[in-house]
Amino acid sequence: MNTLLRRSFLPVFNNTFRGSCRSFADAAINEKIDKIVKNNKVVVFMKGVPDAPRCGFSNAVVQIMRMHAVPYVSHDVLSDENLRQGIKDYSNWPTIPQVFINGEFVGGCDIMLQMHQSGELVEELKKVGIKSALLTAEETKKEMEKK
Amino acid sequence: MVYTEEYIKEKLTKELDAVHVEVTDESDGCGAKFSVLVVSDKFQGKPLLARHRLVNSVLQEELKTIHAFTQKTLTVEQWKQQ
């Protein structure tokens, strides 16, 4: 009788307990990410760090940011398993890297690359008061031509 | 589950009413790295992020094991211009 009771009762207890523990952790990481993306104009969640990206896609995003001379905060998802899953849940986006501008999810590597190529990125950065280095370079060139 | 180019092509074509789909397995056969081009009028009027989200949602299950995924999403008109 005792075993039977345990068998039927324990799994339920275990599931509920684990379930609530997990959602508690989820809520904590969600809140943490929310703070990070809202307190910084540009945030990149990537594999590795800007000086040593550990994935080609993350590297591509770093290079784009460098080209535009964008000041940004980066977070390495490889050093934090909670963050790695948490960021995917937060933005409902399945892959890393992920870029946020002004608290809004902008996209991953493909989108950043296409926005860079189309000139849209320069505009998006302008909206949040960041002047792309490519724009500055272009203006300098025009100035030189005038003279 | 290892996904093939054909499998992904068929699924995207069907779910997105795509007129043209190109799928390339860039993983040397382990099925974890793909790049796709999808041409569909379901992308009409949708910004890039929404288009990519649409593709991601079709491959929600598959993307749990596909490690690297590159996509290009065009409307029929954009495709013709290229």
From TrEMBL, chain A:
Molecular function GO terms recorded: 2 iron, 2 sulfur cluster binding; metal ion binding
Positions of the Glutaredoxin domain? 42-106
Pfam families named among the record's database cross-references:
Glutaredoxin
The protein's matches in PROSITE patterns, at most eight in alphabetical order, are given as: GLUTAREDOXIN_2 (PS51354)
| Entry GO CC | mitochondrial matrix
What are the UniProt keywords, alphabetically? 2Fe-2S, Iron, Iron-sulfur, Metal-binding, Redox-active center
Q: Which Gene3D superfamilies match?
A: Glutaredoxin
Q: Which domain of life is it from?
A: Eukaryota
**Protein name (Swiss-Prot/TrEMBL):** Glutaredoxin-related protein 5, mitochondrial
Automatic annotation (TrEMBL), chain B:
Q: Which Pfam families match?
A: BolA
Provide the transmembrane region boundaries. Answer: none
Q: Identify this protein by name.
A: BolA-like protein 2
Task: State one molecular function term (GO).
Answer: 2 iron, 2 sulfur cluster binding
Top-rank taxon, per record: Eukaryota
**Mind naming one GO cellular-component term on file for this protein?**
cytosol
Q: What residue stretch is flagged as signal peptide?
A: none
Q: Which family is annotated?
A: Belongs to the BolA/IbaG family.
The cross-references to SUPFAM superfamilies, in alphabetical order and at most eight, read: BolA-like
Any one Gene Ontology BP term: intracellular iron ion homeostasis
